[in-house]
Amino acid sequence: MSDHLVKATAEGVRVYAAVTTDLVNEAICRHKCYPTAAAALGRTLTGALLLSANLKNKECITMKFHGDGPLGTVVADANPEGFVRGYVDHPQIELPLNDGKLAVGKGIGKGLLSVTRFTGLKEPVTGSSEIFSGEIAEDITRYLYVSEQTPSSVGLGVLVGKDLRAVAAGGFIIQPLPDASESVLAKLENNLAGVRSVSSMVKDGYDAEGIIAELLHGFAVKYLSSTALAFKCQCSRARIEDMLVTLRPDDMNALLSDGKAEVCCHFCGEKYEFDKEDLLVISHVAEKLRERKTI
Fold first, then answer.
1. Which of 122, 127, 167, 283 could form a disulfide with 159, with the two C-beta atoms 3.0–4.6 Å apart?
2. What are phi and psi of 240, to 5 degrees?
3. Which region, left, alpha or beta, applies to residue 12 given φ > 0 means left and ψ of -120 to 50 means alpha?
């Protein structure tokens, strides 16, 4: 089952659900994550995709968990086209299980969750809230209520196998609309109290529509759209070259002295190698640009 996100509404309720197993495995592989980091990063990637689903084209968000736990900072960038990228500072941290579950909360620790929305305005808009539990879903729920005044229920799950790969990953966000009645809210609360974990539903073969049907049992659901999802980074050799052009002459000369350079993208782990001939060309371009600025 390919990764995808489905939007739906039902009787004054809006819900987005996603299956993200493949893209989470891509992230795990690229960053060589151990289980706790795999779960933390996978939940954050999924949560960012769910939050970005209501943005317009060309808009995007950055979600950042900046905690004091051993995992360090966990970051995800996502856009409504279904692309996401992200990283965790310390992906090879090993932590003992907490009541048989991965200790994501302990790995994240206390600190700040921030969400920056890039909406095409002159300046991006950032909201934040204190990290409540470090379990990701609870913190996003709290952030939406505290920072955006949007009551929500968020569920995220990543089931990691013994081979360090994600067996199943996915998530959902449910938000009551302003016209939701008390009876609808009561029925929704009752459903959520008995719903299984997202990872168990995905493991059993549920797609995003199936997850929504489980969440909104007894509701008349209207499915609106489906979007394919993927781990995709914006880095490229050309972008790295543009970055190298901006280096100070002393720094460029140091690279030329070494005769090579390797640049690794923090978000996806892709490595770009430059030999001395490449660096000489980049240095020449940089020199020409500096000459133009002095004219």
1. 167
2. -65, -40
3. left
Q: What is the pTM of this model?
A: 0.92
Question: Quick one: how many helices (H) and strands (E) in the chain?
Answer: 10, 13
Beta bridge partners of 166: 160
Tell me which DSSP letter residue 292 carries.
H
User: What torsion do the CA atoms of 211, 212, 215, 219 make, to the nearest 10 degrees?
Assistant: -150
Q: Report the C-alpha gap between 140 and 256 in whole angstroms.
A: 46
CATH for 237-294 is 3.90.1280.10
Rounded to a whole number of angstroms, the CA Rg of the chain reads 22
Residue 174 β-bridge partners: 15, 153
**So where are the chain's domains?**
4-231, 237-294
CATH superfamily name and code, 4-231: Hsp33 domain (3.55.30.10)
> pLDDT tens across 175-207, in order?
998 888 889 889 999 999 999 999 999 999 999
Sort strands 125-130 and 153-160 into parallel, antiparallel or unpaired. unpaired
196 Ramachandran zone, left/alpha/beta (phi>0; psi -120 to 50): beta
